[in-house]
Amino acid sequence: MKMYLISDNKDTYTGMRLAGVEGVVVHEREELKEALEEVYKDSEIGIVLLTEKFGRDFPDLVNEAKMGHRLPLLVEIPDRHGTGRKESFITDYVSEAIGLKI
Length: 102
Prior knowledge:
Layout: E1 2-7, H1 10-18, E2 22-25, H2 29-41, E3 45-51, H3 52-57, H4 59-68, E4 73-77, H5 89-98
Parallel strand pairs: 1-2, 1-3, 3-4
């Protein structure tokens, strides 16, 4: 299985290309939608890396992609500017998922 990157900036794209991950740079909603449709056609792609900006700008599209397809797995990653999440996001996520305060 391969990984594939859908990025909103060339810096992240270039870094991932150096690591051997193919991908595409898109900026508009329709471009993202088309890129996701192309990914679904390739059965060799198992993981799609999306920069976090897409989750903030187009949450409905990203959530639909995550919930509507078993594969590939969509993972949101920070770009070169860092994450937009608060420092305790992992702890909060785990607490919410299992119902226990950590």
